[in-house]
Amino acid sequence: MTAAVSIAGLNHWFGQFHALKDINLEIAAGEYITLLGPSGCGKTSLLSVLGGFIDPSEGRVTIDGRDVTRVAPAKRPTTTMFQDYALFPHMTLADNVGFGLRMAGVGRSKRRARADDMLALVGLADSARKHPHELSGGQRQRVALARALAVKPQVLLLDEPLGALDLKLRRAMQDELKAIQRQVGTTFVHVTHDQEEAMAIADRIIVMNAGRIEDQGPPAQVYQQPASLFSADFMGEMNHIPARADGNGVQTPFGLLPSAAASHGTSVACIRPEALSLGDGPVRIGAAQVKDAAFFGTYSRVHVVPDAAPDLVLVANLPPNVVPKPGTRLNLAAQSDAFHIFPIGD
Ligand code: ATP
Question: Would you state the pLDDT for residue 161?
Fold first, then answer.
């Protein structure tokens, strides 16, 4: 079961506080969407509007072409999986997974068959008779997912579903979650504040900031061509280089960048640490002195002070075979299309 979702002209106020601002979003059937942003940006509020737990002040939500804006949560083709996914401790896993079906009046044998299928889907086929306390955190999370999918929602809404897991398990579960979503084909809308999780899992990332959609697109696009300075910074580390845009291009301490910004005035030229490289290139950062360096397995993270901008400290992710000592002199360069220019006003 899967369905397209459409959000049009959505605004929501909690009292005087404008929590969701002019949200318009089309989600395709079967798409895996992550809502990504810092704490308080409105991710959970938007998910709650989709699930029917918040009646929006303005705007319209349609699922599979049906206006559900004022439809109660239980009557929507959605299921919400909260971070605190509390399984019933006294019930077996099969009964936990079949619980929603029981509430819907589905008979015992059908419930049991569906629960078995769902437990098999999440890799717990042999555990139907176990109780939640016999499971690890990751296994409990899988049961919660099986329970949410058992009722065949057209849209599954997940609020920080991996938030309670340790980092390693979290990364492993991301892969599983994506694989399961591919298998069932249900539309998933997944809230997270973890950009690595969003990149690992999403077909499309929706970056939110202060109640607005700030950027959106496939992970590579949002990372490589962020639409705003906020999105650029939120999606990963960025070096900020002071710059000034005029009719000819963008002037920086490292020369004129040909990738001219449309606007004029004070700007910031951003470049990711991995886009700085040793040696020569179209944009010459030039000689720089190492402040410190650390080995990170697949790369060395190096802080350098460029001669051309002694007030600036740049972070460069260099090959791991180079872990230069403080004081070492390096020569750095970059491709001109690696810079992202954002106006910051005068
Ligand atoms: P987090 O990652 O911390 O859960 P979030 O991005 O999900 O954050 P929301 O929970 O959607 O953010 O909250 C958005 C803003 O709306 C916050 O400033 C929050 O304080 C406010 N807010 C949320 N729910 C209510 C409410 N019921 N009444 C008043 N303000 C609320």
Answer: 85
Tokens 């969003």, residue?
198
Closest protein CA for atom 24 of ligand 1: 45
Ligand 1 atom 19: residue of nearest CA: 40
Q: Could you tell me if the CB of 48 is within 6 A of ligand 1?
A: no
Ligand 1, atom 10: closest residue by C-alpha: 44
User: Which of 14, 23, 83 has the most ligand 1 atoms within 8 A of CB, as the residue to mutate?
Assistant: 14
Q: How remote is the CA of residue 112 from the centroid of ligand 1, in Å?
A: 38
CB of 14 sitting under 6 A from ligand 1? yes
Residue 153 contacts residue 64 (beta carbons within 8 Å): no
Q: What is the 3-state secondary structure (H, E, C) of 91-153?
A: CCHHHHHCHHHHHCCCCHHHHHHHHHHHHHHCCCHHHCCCCHHHCCHHHHHHHHHHHHHHCCC
The pLDDT tens digits for 209-219 are 999 999 999 99
Token pair listed for 302: 């190096």
**pLDDT tens-digit series, residues 48-75:** 999 999 999 999 999 999 999 999 998 9
265 CA to centre of ligand 1 in angstroms:
35
Take residue 59 and report the two structure tokens written for it.
């705007």
Would you tell me how many other CB atoms lie within 10 Å of the CB of residue 51?
Answer: 22
Reference 169, options 141, 205, 196; nearest CA is 141
> What's this model's pTM, rounded to 2 decimal places?
0.90
Cα 111 from Cα 209, distance rounded (Å): 42
Compute the distance from residue 92 Cα to the ligand 1 centre, in Å: 34
Domain definitions of the chain by residue range? 5-230, 237-274+285-343
d(CA 231, CA 36): 10
pLDDT tens figures, 243-271: 988 877 888 999 888 655 556 788 899 99
Assign domain 5-230 to its CATH architecture: 3-Layer(aba) Sandwich (3.40)
| Backbone angle region of 35, left / alpha / beta, with phi > 0 → left and psi within -120 to 50 → alpha | beta
CA–CA separation, 340 vs 312, rounded Å?
17
